[in-house]
Specification:
Blueprint: H1 10-16, H2 21-26, H3 42-47, H4 53-65
Length: 67
């Protein structure tokens, strides 16, 4: 089972687990095309949008773990 951490870089996450784009989309986040995605961690990007990082991480890990 994969374990995605909140300090993982957004671009690295999406390259390694492209299916996680669905979670970003479900939360209404367009980080996939954002220039900051190369520099920000998941936590930085998600909290900047006012989203609970723990809920988001749970959803990411459940999606990747289900594959």
């Amino acid at each position: 089972m994969a374990n995605i951490s909140k300090d993982m870089n957004l671009t690295e996450l999406l390259k390694k687990y492209p299916e996680t784009a669905r979670v970003f989309s479900a939360y209404g986040i367009g980080c996939i095309g954002c220039a900051l995605a190369s520099y920000e961690t998941i936590e930085q990007g998600i909290t900047a949008h006012g989203i609970d990082i723990n809920d988001f991480m749970k959803d990411l890990n459940e999606l990747v773990g289900a594959n």
